[in-house]
Amino acid sequence: MKAGNLSKARKERTRLDKRAIGDANAMKFGRTKEQKQADLKAQLAARAKLDGHKLDK
User: Fold this and answer.
1) Where in the sequence is the domain holding 35, given as residue range(s)?
2) What is the arithmetic mean of pLDDT over 22-43?
3) Is the entire prediction scored with pTM above 0.90?
4) Is position 57 within any domain?
5) Superkingdom of the source (predicted)?
């Protein structure tokens, strides 16, 4: 058994584990494009409503 093969296998396993954790976090905490657009639309509507209530002097 060569030491290089074991080292490469260990590194590959570590990469795969980190990738799996990252994918799980993306599913748990990530937001879809539609969610981001809906939040932006709501924010713009709230800003427009607030601007509509301004008193002009």
Assistant:
1) 3-52
2) 92
3) no
4) no
5) Bacteria
